[in-house]
What does this fold into?
Amino acid sequence: MSGALPRAQQIRVQMQRHGFVARSSTPGELAAYMKDQLAVWNTAPRTAGLIP
It folds into this structure.
């Protein structure tokens, strides 16, 4: 278990490098975010012209 904390820090740094920001949320906040993202990404292929 001693390597878990340094590994978590490495993952956090890698995620930040790629623009991700880790944060906690409630189950309700997560559900609302997922619903919003589903709506965004469901329209993306049509907007990009990939679906007629």
Summary: The two ends are 52 Å apart (CA to CA).
